[in-house]
Amino acid sequence: MTAGGEVFDNNADTAAISLSRQPQLPFGTRVQVTNVANGRSVTVRINDRGTFTQTPQEPKCLDLTDGAFSRLGGVLDPDAGHIVVTQQVLG
Fold first, then answer.
1. 11: which of 23, 47, 57, 67 fits an S-S bond (Cβ 3.0–4.6 Å)?
2. Tens digit of each residue's pLDDT (9 = 90 or more) over 18-55
3. CA 74 to CA 11: how far, in whole Å?
4. What gap in Å lies between CA 29 and CA 54, rounded to an integer?
């Protein structure tokens, strides 16, 4: 179960947002995420919260599902599981 009360679907276009992000985005917020390296975009819906830490290097960290991450061109490898993205809150 996600923090938003949904059954987790690892292929859905959803994401968890860092608890350290300020301001927090409410559950249901749609965010367009674009991979800076290749220009691919996906719109995800916030349905979970994460305990991962926001850092100066990763100022607005999102934890995407594997499906959304793959659609952005990310490689599902634990050692290479981060990509630089831009984010636009759609509402």
1. 67
2. 877 777 889 999 999 999 999 999 999 999 987 666 56
3. 14
4. 19
Please return the burial class of 76, using the count of CB atoms within 10 Å of its CB with bins 0-12, 13-18 and 19+.
exposed
- State whether the Cα torsion 7-65-70-76 is positive or negative: negative
pLDDT tens column, 54-74:
566 655 678 899 999 999 998
Give the span between the Cα atoms of 7 and 89, in whole angstroms.
23
For the record, the structure tokens of 80 come out as 């290479």
Nearest alpha carbon to residue 74 among 15, 28, 23, 22: 15
At residue 79, the 3 state secondary structure works out as helix
The structure's pTM equals 0.84
Strand residues in the chain grouped as ranges (E) = 14-18, 30-35, 41-50, 62-64, 85-89
